[in-house]
Amino acid sequence: MISYVYYPGCVAQESGKELDNATKFVAKKLDINLIPMPEASCCGGGVIDGFDENLKLFINGRTLALAEKTGFDILTVCNTCTLTLSEVNEELINNKGLLDKTNEYLAKIGLRYEGRVKIKHILYAIRDDIGFDNLKKKIANSLRGVSIAPFYGCHILRPSSVVKFDDVENPQGFEELIGALGGEPLSYVRRTKCCGFQTILINETTSTSLAGNAILEAQEKKADVMVTPCPLCHLSLDTYQTVAAKSINKKLSLPIMHLPQLIGVALGGSYAEMGFSRHNISLRPVMAKIKQNRF
Amino acid sequence: MLKHDVVIVGAGLAGLRACVELRKKGVDAVILSKVYPTRSHSGAAQGGVNAALDENDSWESHFFDTVKGSDYLGDQDAIEILTSEAPANIIELQRMGIVFNRNDLGGIAQRPFGGQSYPRSCYYADAVGHMMLHGLFDNVLKYKTKILYEYFVTSLAVDNGKVSGVVAYDIKNGRFEGIAAKAVLFATGGYGQVYSSNTNALINTGDGMATSVKAGVPLMDMEFVQFHPTTLKSTGILVTEGARGEGAYLLNSLGIRFMSKYAPKTMELAPRDVVARAEQTEINEGRGIDGAILLDVRHLGKEKIMERLPQIMQLSIDFEGVNPIYEPIPIRPGAHYSMGGIKTDNNGRTATAGYYSAGESACVSVHGANRLGGNSLLDTIVFGRRAGIDIAEYIKDAAFAKFDESLIRRDEDILDKLKKSSGKEKHGLLKAELQEEMRANVGVFREEKAMEKAVKKIEELKERAKNIGVDDKSKLFNTDIVEALEFNNILLIAEIIAKGAILRKESRGAHYRNDYPERDDENWLKHTLATLDDNGNIKFDFSKVSITKFRPQPRTY
Amino acid sequence: MEFKVRSYRFNPEIDDKPYYKEYIVQDFPGMTVLNALMKIKAETDGTLSFRRSCRSAICGSCAMKINGISKLACKTQVSSEIEKFGMIKSNPLFNMPVVRDLIVDQEIFFDKIKKIKPYLLGQRDNEEYHRFHVLREGEKIAQPVYHKSEFQNLTGNDDAPNCILCECCYSECGGVVGNKNYLGPAALAKLYRYSEDPRDNDKNGSRLVNGSQPEGIWDCIHCQACEEFCPKGISPVKAITKLHEKAIKNSITFSKGAKHIISIAKSIGETGRLDEVKVAADTGGIAGLINDLPMAFGAGLKGKIPPIRLKLIKDMDDIRLAYKELDLEEK
Asked: Which residues in chain C are closer than 8 Å to A105, comparing Cβ atoms?
């Protein structure tokens, strides 16, 4: 059994509760021990440094210090949480002045950070810590013949000076995971482009057009489902898909899974267990296809 | 036909600086450039711009250093202007928004440069040209200047000794445009592409100089070509003199700082002509490494390299596969700068009324036989500014001279013929042959026989150039045609350089003759002037050097 | 080694539509993509069109898409591309109209640079430094004093003034893909550069006010592509974030974007969490909420609507202390 401090992030605890459930389902199947961290705060949603740079350091420094106390690395399921925690981690490790300043605050709440924590997104934790071979052994439902469009999003890849999981110019980790699960990764240009989420409340049309065009491309290439490692992308791609369709004036209907849901389904998770009823675009067609392919 | 009071051709530092001066006064001046202004090669200048700012320094010392650096061929009245106006120009640039690194007292930081007796090169890390180019361009935008970019000037229109405008080829649309003007400024830069190993941009093809001499305006001192001592071995990309200014060593294959032999007092910070010759001698005598010698900055330490020399660090890694923090950089001399150019007075005026030049394309002359590092950027801003001021005065009383529109048709015909030619010669390949010939035979060390061979080769290439055929017949953004026109320009410039170099039977500054190794003030303390006769043959004449304060002395470092 | 170059070709004067043309090139040690294209042009096909000038990564002319990513052809090694992609695929930059082959129309890009007023607004210096003074014999110049620290955000290797306007960031910017009128990373980095200049005299904060208009600093989607693909190592997205911080610290908060971030900060300060409903309401105002109602309602039907009142995180006092320490409680 391998243990991580689990940092689900805000969305997985609020509107994206199904992501949290699916992650826990997958963890159980793969013998991953998720240590809860109820003290952890929001990372700041990737924008908090625009309010105050030090606030970003303090609240995330605190999360890192809390994790360090347990002796385990952090497991994330959200791209933006992954980037934000990694950025702060890099800054604290590489800039002694900032580390001292942050530790001054942490001392007042009985914490201290030494810079020993690593942040791992579940996609790459499975690749690097669990291993695809171990994953394959536990597959219960075959994804054979299912065309799966991996939507990386941004913050799991960029900036590559901070998130160093994959080759930013030609990432393969997601495709390899889909392959390991028995599915067929779809090749399409927008797999590494932005979903637009950060401005969805500021400029809805332009923001959702980005998600819309990614969905359209995958749909035209006959994807059965699109999968994303990030709940913010999921909001853009699924919750706002109807709006996105209007923005680009096209008909869109592509089911969108959270990455842990896809893994969960392959490991035998049911429609209900994966919380698919909470999605905007129905998962029934793709689930039907997966059932047909059952061993 | 377009019509503007002033046309500035070229949007590097000199052109932009003149433009700011004119636009500030509300003059109807347009910029015309064959590339977008920020692509100009001034942006590649790295190390510094000289001015005696420090209270322990003096502009008089800068004055003398420059005269001596020029091997006494520089005009002293012009050099006095260059150096005494330098500090005010730097302060003015700073006021315009250019950023310089600071010293501990809050003044502009300065580093040592070759041939300067005091650290007086102002810098922005090792990208001061970039900083100045973008800063000046921002000012040109501030004054809402009309910019005709990607226009290639094919002819200067002159009527009865007065300029009347230019003919330009609109690259994007493939058509010719006549632009009538009361005054025209050529700030068109140098011709580094005449040589195979050079630090210059691919656009530096001496267009302005070639166009001028074809319009009857003399070129001065064209045989003086600066070879920069430190250019990357594989590509010729510039490694700033600022590296030596910060304390870098030059090493031969034996690991010896060989400059002790050639310039025992100033070592690596001797002027460029001295260092380039020293390097070439080491290489020729078998103490090089694979045709190069080494520039070593390792002892400066990572922090200083990253703070002061970040660009050359990156260039060495990207283009030479060497990280200077851990390994010395293989370098060799490469063609870098033209001391000669369009002959102008101290206000940028040429012999043709209303026609001006400034910057590298011009020859005032402040650099004489050898330019000191950090003086070229200074030249662009001092004389760019002066030209701007003078033009603003000049156009007040000037009228538009008669623009002979048949010039436009003449250039159209040349282009049409080129397009229709079924010739089999490719300009890209001819260019490579020319460049290699010039490097081999009109380079750092020169002698009669080799140069005669080069002239022969040039004659041959001129013949073959008549059979150039272009693949691209299109009107839309035809770069094939533009390159063919550029080739004809460098071919003409190469001929003037080679013939001028044969003519000058002495060694002075960057012009070194194995067969005439001494400076000969009695016969050759004079400028060379090149013009074309009616048949296109080069004619040479001479003019006096202005000597006001400093009598020529032996030049040692 | 021989390798393949597959280049986008389109000359609207003669071609009906774009196509790809393949060339086989012989390499040499240290060959760059620009070297390869120039070799093709000089020896094989003079019609292949692209811009180039300095060949040393300082002029920004030769930016193009190489194997899908915006790069300077002059500093991209052929060998590393071949190793990763097996060939060189060259395309024009994105987000700008193609003129021909690998040449794009840059007018729109430079128009946006002009829009941000890329120059000092007024002067802070003493009057005495404003006149041009030619030195007489023996005379020295007086210069205004600016300490290193005043220029600290403008003199680092990765700072905005090092931008060469090559358009790689603009070509990769997701914000521009979504909205052609968005100013984009290079222009906003330049806005930041001037807003940090100690000589600038922008008394009424007009830079930040203008920058906060729609299509300005708040339209960045934080996709990080500008930082990732800048060939000079500059991070426009970090410059934009700094502009956000500056705008809020200067109470320039009329924009939706500013309201959005303030609301997130408030939410974290109160609960330790990001309250999705409140942030939506605060950002868009009532109109925004109504606008999003059908969506929210649709999501709600499926049980997706987030909880109305969030549970506070454990040890919420820690977070409150962070706000107090940083003097952020009022904001």
From this structure: 321-322, 325
